[in-house]
Amino acid sequence: MPKRVKTLSDAAINKAKPKDKEHHLYDGDGLYIAITPTGGKLWRMKYYFEGKERRIHFGSYPEISLADARQRRFEARQLLVKGIDPGAVKKAMKEARNADAETFEVIAHEWHQKYINEWTSGHAVTIMSRLNRDIFPYIGSMPILNIKAADVLKVLRRVESRGALDTLKVG
Q1: Domain coordinates of the chain in residue numbers?
Q2: Which of 28, 123, 133, 149 shows the smallest number of beta carbons within 10 Å?
Q3: 10-84, which class in CATH?
Q4: What is the pTM of this model?
């Protein structure tokens, strides 16, 4: 039989002081707040999935309130009832957000910054102007993982059709 835990209050969380080691205040159903030695207060939930103990992090207090943390615990429990790992769902959502943020333009700017010191200033300006003129308007906003060879070929054919063959030259 699970141990009965007294639920938390905002007053109890605010009173909690850091100690030499991380310690926890429990709210029940796996939800707890970890008090770090530096004074941080982090919401976590312990649960079991496929016979293994797992943990999921919800964020820090007070950005995530007690009520929000309880709501997130409820949603995680609903996923567990359906046989879905809430940690895997959170990870998949994070990866999807990152994939959307990693557009061709973002990656191209990172690449440009990486090599800018190896090029002459004129060459660096030429490369960026060609990217701005010929590529970014067509595939710049596309997530890098969604770009297909056909998309790149369309861009190259546009450049070729205006007669800028030196732009297409490699090496």
Answers
A1: 10-84, 104-168
A2: 149
A3: alpha beta
A4: 0.59
